[in-house]
């Protein structure tokens, strides 16, 4: 029986990783390395770029809220393939327009579909893993995001001299189609029953999302949402504005982030298993905060490099550790908790680009806006100190 389980586990993890790669990197984060090129092509200004990012984050929030509504297993099976398909279609349509207004609308729809998939796919897989006693492997699904950042970097940089304007979205679309189709075909086969809604005493368990144990986790995760989004959205643009930056950082800061992100899910999955998810989460926040402070206090090549390495190497760890901790606190409502955390994350990451825009409009610098991210991560670290240390089964 064990011989049959291992290949199934690998296939499920790979399918989830590819689905997240499609929506969260080829659909979403590829915008970060594309933005300096779109500005260079005259498609967007820096302020318009922040606006477009804000619409995408608003969509991501909306998608997470919808995922809270559609949290039952049978609903996930119905909604997930539609959201995945819409996400890919949005990428196709982005190849056909350079209109700021239409691009903003498409990034809004992209965000909605991404939010739904980013909640539902890992939640479905986590429930399947928990059923088979392998919940501790759930963080490996996020390897798709790390791999996708490297892929997205290559899809932007390699054809940079061959494509222009809206054409720059074509490589992402062409790769998204086969990955999305194969990924969903595997996930559609998962045998996941609905959670039993009765506790040991025979009474229905509480449906409250916030209690003494879970509230610190939610407050901490709010800081994570605003803390990571500034470097993950604007670091390449910031590098292009700083003086005396070496060419490899001007053109490759996003690649450094991507390389740091690639092993991060495995590292933080392992750290959670060895240290406990709660202690690992505190270490994660501390390192992420150091990354933002480096680019603020040492705004040269070394500071930029450390920011790319530390933020890239930690932000997915925050996600996987928080999601797994949430399920240990309320195992009977795992998908709903996952959606609630992503919705909260989205609210605060939406505030990052909006506040950046206000700061720029008032004459501030992009580098100065990064102080907001540092403050948010201090908040996240403080509340992480109060999250109970429990392990996934």
UniProtKB/TrEMBL annotation:
Q: Does the keyword Ribonucleoprotein apply?
A: no
Instruction: Kindly report the protein's main subcellular placement as a broad class.
Output: membrane
Where found?
Membrane
Q: Name a GO CC annotation attached to this entry.
A: plasma membrane
Keyword vocabulary terms for this entry: Membrane, Transmembrane, Transmembrane helix
Q: Which GO-annotated molecular functions does the record name?
A: transmembrane transporter activity
- What stretches pass through the bilayer? 12-32, 108-128, 140-160, 166-184, 217-236, 248-267, 279-297, 303-325, 337-356, 368-387
Q: Which InterPro entries match?
A: MFS_4, MFS_trans_sf, Sugar_transporter_CS
Q: Which residues form a coiled coil?
A: none
For membrane topology, the record states:
Multi-pass membrane protein
Short name of one Pfam family for this protein? MFS_4
User: Superkingdom of this entry's organism?
Assistant: Bacteria
Identify the PANTHER family for this entry.
PTHR23537, SUGAR TRANSPORTER
Q: What is this protein called?
A: Putative MFS family arabinose efflux permease
The organism named in the record is Thiopseudomonas denitrificans
């Amino acid at each position: 029986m064990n011989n049959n389980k291992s290949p199934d586990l690998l296939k499920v993890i790979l399918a989830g990783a590819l689905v997240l790669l499609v929506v969260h990197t080829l659909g979403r984060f590829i915008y970060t390395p594309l933005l300096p090129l779109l500005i260079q092509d005259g498609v967007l200004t820096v302020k318009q770029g922040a606006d477009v990012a804000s619409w995408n984050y608003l969509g991501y929030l909306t998608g997470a809220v919808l995922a809270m509504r559609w949290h039952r297993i049978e609903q996930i099976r119905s909604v997930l393939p539609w959201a995945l398909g819409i996400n890919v279609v949005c990428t196709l349509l982005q190849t056909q327009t350079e209109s700021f207004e239409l691009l903003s609308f498409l990034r809004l729809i992209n965000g909605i579909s991404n939010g739904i998939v980013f909640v539902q796919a890992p939640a479905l897989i986590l429930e399947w893993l928990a059923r088979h006693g392998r919940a501790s492997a759930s963080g490996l699904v996020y390897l798709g995001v790390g791999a996708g950042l490297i892929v997205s970097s290559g899809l932007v940089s390699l054809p940079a001299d061959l494509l222009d304007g809206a054409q720059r979205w074509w490589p992402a679309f062409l790769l998204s189609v086969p990955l999305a189709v194969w990924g969903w075909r595997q996930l559609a086969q998962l045998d996941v029953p609905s959670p039993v809604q009765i506790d040991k005493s025979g009474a229905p368990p509480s449906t409250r999302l916030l209690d003494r144990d879970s509230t610190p986790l939610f407050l901490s995760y709010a800081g994570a949402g605003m803390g990571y989004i500034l470097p993950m959205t604007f670091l390449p643009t910031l590098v292009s504005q700083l003086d005396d930056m070496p060419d490899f950082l001007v053109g490759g800061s996003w690649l450094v982030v991507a390389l740091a992100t690639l092993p991060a899910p495995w590292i933080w999955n392992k750290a959670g298993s060895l240290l406990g998810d709660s202690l690992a989460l505190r270490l994660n926040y501390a390192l992420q905060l150091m990354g933002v402070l480096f680019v603020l206090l040492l705004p040269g090549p070394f500071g930029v490099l450390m920011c790319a390495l530390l933020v890239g190497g930690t932000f997915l760890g925050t996600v996987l550790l928080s999601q797994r901790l949430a399920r240990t606190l309320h195992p009977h409502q795992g998908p709903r908790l996952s959606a609630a955390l992503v919705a909260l994350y989205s609210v605060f990451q939406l505030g990052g680009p909006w506040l950046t825009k206000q700061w720029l409009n008032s004459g501030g610098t992009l580098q100065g806006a990064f102080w907001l991210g540092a403050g948010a991560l201090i908040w996240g670290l403080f509340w992480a100190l109060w999250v109970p240390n429990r392990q996934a089964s």
